[in-house]
């Protein structure tokens, strides 16, 4: 659908038109969020590169949105340009023997907008081990690389080889995984807990190094992870875990023990299935971002009063907050 014509548009060489005042709620897994001043969907990395370089040139702050599965977008929305990354190529590349004569493990190449679970499925179908844990994790490869996403004992950093990104100096760089200073849900590409549009680096693609294994076993492991998730996590719109686990404990256990399971604020609810998930059962038009923020504050305060533990947000607040 084409929206109203707007004055600010990139040149024809970028190959797309910006939309104005585009609602973002439907592009997030919790179905919450106000509008972006300007919005574009990119499907090819050259488009992404050209759009970001143009935005930098005209001083228009931008924010890349992957699967929207870790961001709470404010009700007031995002100032500047939101770039929805749908660059989704995934392929298996054999290791060039001239470069790696002693190591024949293949690479899985994925553009940053590819779904992480889809990339995991590609590797599983090829009988390659290493990404089975990711088969049930929502979002894109770009978001996962930035957050060091992980589940079932696996993390992005375990198999990531390198990342191609557009750095802040407008250069395309290949960065080895070891340079990203990975930790628990952390990398040095990750911006703060509450962010606006800016002019930061953009992840273009990633290479994972995977090991050939027993295809049946790999498939069964991934299936087991999927079934575990279906049993233990809610199906209503959410952002997954709201808080990171404090050392030696689980945020969900503390929230539950504080008596907050099922607690409601506006239309937002502490999930009955997993107390670290805040769910928006009504979907788009249901809860407000402000309800989520209020519920998070209530949880933090209650858990601190009961157990003396300060829960840290895992989800990132995005956009303009009053
Ligand atoms: C039901 C559910 C279950 C979940 N389970 C897990 C789990 O088991 N483990 C886990 O780790 N997480 C989990 N999550 C959280 C989420 O899936 C991950 O954090 C995921 O990696 C986020 O990826 P995304 O593409 O959705 O990122 P987004 O939410 O779109 O973005 C996250 C951040 O990354 C930035 N970003 C995204 N792509 C790029 C790019 N190409 N270049 C620059 N910046 C970029 C965004 O600007 C934003 O700051 C879950 C979420 C849900 C809804």
In brief, what are we looking at here?
With 322 residues, the protein is of the alpha+beta class. Helix content is 24%, strand content 25%. The protein contains 7 helices and 20 strands.
List keywords for this structure.
5-stranded antiparallel β-sheet; Uridine Diphospho-n-acetylenolpyruvylglucosamine Reductase, domain 2; 322 residues; 7 helices; 4-stranded mixed β-sheet; globular; Uridine Diphospho-n-acetylenolpyruvylglucosamine Reductase, domain 3; single chain; Uridine Diphospho-n-acetylenolpyruvylglucosamine Reductase, domain 1; 25% strand; binds flavin-adenine dinucleotide; alpha+beta; 24% helix; 3 domains
Characterization of the model:
By secondary structure, this protein is an alpha+beta fold. It has 3 domains: 12-85, Uridine Diphospho-n-acetylenolpyruvylglucosamine Reductase, domain 2 (2-Layer Sandwich), CATH 3.30.43.10; 90-230, Uridine Diphospho-n-acetylenolpyruvylglucosamine Reductase, domain 3 (2-Layer Sandwich), CATH 3.30.465; 235-318, UDP-N-acetylenolpyruvoylglucosamine reductase, C-terminal domain (Uridine Diphospho-n-acetylenolpyruvylglucosamine Reductase, domain 1, Alpha-Beta Complex). The chain is built from 7 helices and 20 strands. The longest helix is centred in the C-terminal third of the chain and has 19 residues, at 289-307. Bound molecules: flavin-adenine dinucleotide (FAD).
